[in-house]
Amino acid sequence: MKRVLPPLNALRAFEAAGRLGSFKEAAAELNVTQGAVSQHVRLLEEWLGAALFERHNRRVLLTPAAKAYLAEVGPLFEQLSQATARYGFPEPISRTLSVNAPATFTLRWLVPRLAQFRAEHPDVDVKVETSNEPVESVEQTFDVIIRGGPDTFYGYSMRLFLSEERLPVCSPALLLRLPLRTPGDMRQHTFLHTSSLPRLWPDWLARVGIPALKPAATLTFDHFYLTLQAAIDGIGIAMGPTALVADDLAAGRLVAPFDGPRLPSRSYCTYVADGKSDDELVVLFRSWLERAGMGSRTETAN
């Protein structure tokens, strides 16, 4: 007879949270984020088709059915722990996945999604370092390097996981002060530039047929994440990459006054040294990035 088992990582999070009466304390015990515990519990609730906790500020209370469930599930984890110790099996060694990625991409796309990866794979530690060096110039050995592409480098396999375009974005508050009904109205605004991407605004203005338009002012930053933050703060209008501003558009921190035209942009790709391409964690992380990238494309399209 086939066993019907709930998601075991989700069950583990439920047991710890129920026993301790706190998602925060459960996260500390399991060495994951509080958000990961919450997501696992939600997954188990969806699987069971019933609520397990009543949320009360910083504490959580088990529902009557969940309390009875925990009374049976809890001892099973203790028995499993004792059996493992009794037969002398070593504790599983967590592995660390090292990732090198551009700072703006890491800040605005990767970090907000890493909690989901940790929720799905709590036994994998991720170490992220940021740089913009070309792939072939990265001196330290990393499991996964994320850069624009697609490009070809000797000794590396490449896989694309996230595409994007660029279009003007600004804060809703800025539009209230200075409405944008047509692209010509942009002459009243401040254009936000990034020093490494000087052609974005001229190329977009040429696309809309007003290449000679002069804005009221310009402001240039040396890092792209500063340019986007200035747009969120209502200082001016930036040429936003759709993938990296999707969360801000969805949350209403930014708006796109014009849906087009959109400038083409390089995609994000993973580059992995040939000797690491078949590594279990590398395959796992690459597949997760591709699923997350597909989700981002769907959100942007909507």
Automatic annotation (TrEMBL):
Recorded GO molecular functions are: DNA-binding transcription factor activity; sequence-specific DNA binding
Keywords (alphabetical) are:
DNA-binding, Transcription, Transcription regulation
Kindly give the InterPro entries that the UniProt entry links to this protein. LysR-type_TF_proteobact-type, LysR_HTH_N, LysR_subst-bd, WH-like_DNA-bd_sf, WH_DNA-bd_sf
Q: Can you tell which superkingdom this protein's organism belongs to?
A: Bacteria
What would be one Pfam family of this protein? LysR_substrate
Q: Which family does it belong to?
A: Belongs to the LysR transcriptional regulatory family.
Annotated protein name in UniProt: Glycine cleavage system transcriptional activator
User: What organism does the UniProt record list as the source?
Assistant: Paraburkholderia fynbosensis
This protein's gene is called gcvA_4
